[in-house]
Design brief:
Helix 5 packs parallel to helix 7. By secondary structure, the protein is α/β, with parallel strands linked by helices. It is built from 14 helices and nine strands. The longest helix has 14 residues.
Length: 308
């Protein structure tokens, strides 16, 4: 780990001065709330268990608060930023405040949803303060496209954190919960107050830890096939699975047959099922008549980021 001066990180005055110089005002459209507390970003890095050999990808680095803290701890940091002004300014901020680590930093000026490859060594960790409005699709897309990411820690709206970490039977358990569990073991990793952001949001934030599964879900069904069941089950979450999956299976009796074959009650609801049980249903999907099957496959790229 490199040694840096305490003032290398950005404080409240630094953030406001930098924003004023750049003419930046945080926008609701992109869900921008900049972290202004050095203790908070160091806490995030500690909670993420960033190691000296890690290659960390950060989505939405903003003015660089978390970026600098990550550079203190990791081997390399690759930051993906969509905003033109912020992307243009961040390399200079890193060079000015942490010159000895500047060669360990790479900026990718792009929409994270469009990134399919990253420069340098494969990423081993994802750490990010994700914009509230795109948190789930960005997270699922990154996990899907970069399987070398072993550990993830994201800061998201508290409600989103609860949904991601929810277990079957919980009232907020849904599409994000199941899909995150396809890739990782998920747990809540702490809470973040509103006062550490500028501007202060109207909601609290939460930390979510996601550790890549040691073994993938044991199933003969593809990810797209499993996610199609998940999407159908929660599209009308108050309905029984027999009814909710009738469109997916071709009819209610066909859905019931698939559920019985998978060992699941047709009267159950999606919120009670694990990702493994959704996979079992996908494995038992009835064969559709040839005339009906042409358009039944969902696009891989859509299924990764779909959320309720």
């Amino acid at each position: 780990m490199s040694t840096t001066e305490p003032d290398a990180l950005l404080g409240p005055a630094d953030i406001r001065e930098l924003a004023a110089t750049l003419g930046v005002r945080p926008t609701k459209q992109r869900g921008q709330n900049f972290v202004i507390d050095a203790n908070t970003v160091r806490r995030i890095v500690r909670t993420a268990e960033v190691r000296p050999d890690d290659v960390v990808v950060e989505v939405g680095p903003g003015l660089g608060s978390l970026t600098l803290a990550l550079l203190e701890a990791a081997d390399r940091v690759v930051a993906v930023e969509i905003d033109d002004v912020l992307a243009g300014a961040l390399p200079a901020t890193v060079a000015a405040r942490m010159p000895e680590r500047a060669d360990r930093f790479t900026l990718v000026h792009s929409d994270a949803m469009q990134v399919r490859e990253l420069p340098g060594p494969p990423p081993t960790a994802l750490v990010a303060n994700l914009p509230y409005n795109v948190a789930v699709p960005v997270l699922l897309t990154m996990l899907d496209r970069f399987p070398t990411i072993e550990r993830t820690l994201v800061m998201v709206q508290a409600e989103v954190a609860d949904r991601l970490a929810a277990r079957p039977g919980n009232k907020v358990y849904g599409v994000p919960s199941v899909k995150a569990n396809w890739y990782t073991d998920v747990k809540r990793a702490g809470s973040i107050g509103r006062k550490v952001f500028w501007p202060a949001p109207n909601v609290d934030s939460g930390l979510v830890s996601l550790v890549r599964r040691a073994e993938p879900v044991a199933t003969t069904a593809s990810k797209a096939e499993v996610f199609a069941v998940v999407d159908a089950a929660f599209a009308q979450r108050r309905k029984t699975l027999r009814a909710a999956l009738s469109g997916w299976a071709g009819s209610a009796p066909a859905a019931e047959a698939a559920l019985v074959a998978a060992g699941i009650s047709p009267q159950a609801r999606g919120e009670a099922l694990t990702v493994e049980e959704f996979a079992a249903i996908a494995e038992n999907k009835p064969a559709l008549p040839e005339s009906d099957s042409a358009g039944s496959d969902s696009a891989e790229s859509d299924s990764a980021g779909s959320a309720e």
